[in-house]
Design a protein that fits this description.
By secondary structure, the chain is an alpha/beta fold. Helix content is 53%, strand content 11%. A hairpin with a 2-residue loop joins strand 2 and strand 3.
Length: 176
C-alpha cells in the first residue's frame, strides 16, 4: 500500500542519512557551536537592524548555501519534495526565502504551528524579497487568501472549510 511504501521510503532515507552521519565528538561540537552561534548572530542582527527594510544584498551563510546547492542538485534529478533538518536559529526561514527568491514561484504556502512564527516568516520574506509578491497571513480571523505568498498555521489551514477554498495545485511551493 501507499502508506507502507511511504514508511519504507522514510526508513530507507533515515538509514542512508544515519550511515553518512558524523560522530559527535568534542571537536565536532566545538566547530558546530562556533558555526551555529555565528549564523544565529548574523541572522538576528540582520532582522533587528533592518526591520522593515528590504535588503537584497543579504547573502546565505555557509549552511544555507550548502543546502541551496543540495536543493538544486535534487531538483536536477527530478525530486520535487525535500526535507531539511537543522537546529533552531540556524536560518531555515532565510534559507527557504533564498530558495523562493531563486525559483520565483507564483504562489507559495508557508505552514507553521504558531501565528507568531508565521508573522516572523512573512517579515523575513518581505525583508529579503521586498514587494516582488503580495504576502499575507491566513490564520484566525485574518484570511488573506488572494495574496501570492501565504503564511498560515496548520491549525487554521487544515480545517476542511479552509482547505476547500484552495485548489489541490494552488501552490507552486509549500514550506512546512
Amino acid at each position: 500500500s501507499l502508506e507502507s511504501q511511504l514508511y519504507l521510503d522514510a526508513l530507507n532515507s533515515f538509514q542512508s542519512e544515519f550511515e553518512k552521519a558524523k560522530i559527535v565528538s568534542e571537536d565536532f561540537l566545538k566547530y558546530y557551536e562556533k558555526d551555529w552561534l555565528e549564523a544565529r548572530k548574523k541572522s538576528i542582527q540582520n532582522v533587528q537592524i533592518n526591520a522593515g527594510k528590504v535588503n537584497p544584498k543579504i547573502e546565505p551563510n555557509r549552511m544555507q548555501q550548502e543546502a541551496l546547492d543540495n536543493l538544486a542538485k535534487l531538483r536536477l534529478t527530478g525530486h520535487k519534495k525535500t526535507l531539511l533538518i537543522s537546529a533552531t536559529g540556524t536560518g531555515k526561514t532565510f534559507l527557504s526565502a533564498f530558495d523562493v527568491q531563486r525559483l520565483k514561484p507564483k504562489k507559495i504556502l508557508f505552514l507553521v504551528h504558531r501565528l507568531t512564527i508565521a508573522e516572523k516568516a512573512k517579515q523575513t520574506f518581505e525583508y529579503l524579497l521586498g514587494n516582488e509578491k503580495e504576502m499575507g497571513i491566513y490564520s484566525g480571523i485574518l484570511k488573506e487568501s488572494s495574496k501570492d505568498y501565504l503564511f498560515s498555521t496548520v491549525q487554521t489551514f487544515s480545517r476542511i472549510e479552509n482547505l476547500e477554498k484552495f485548489k489541490k495545485d494552488e501552490f507552486d511551493y509549500i514550506i512546512i
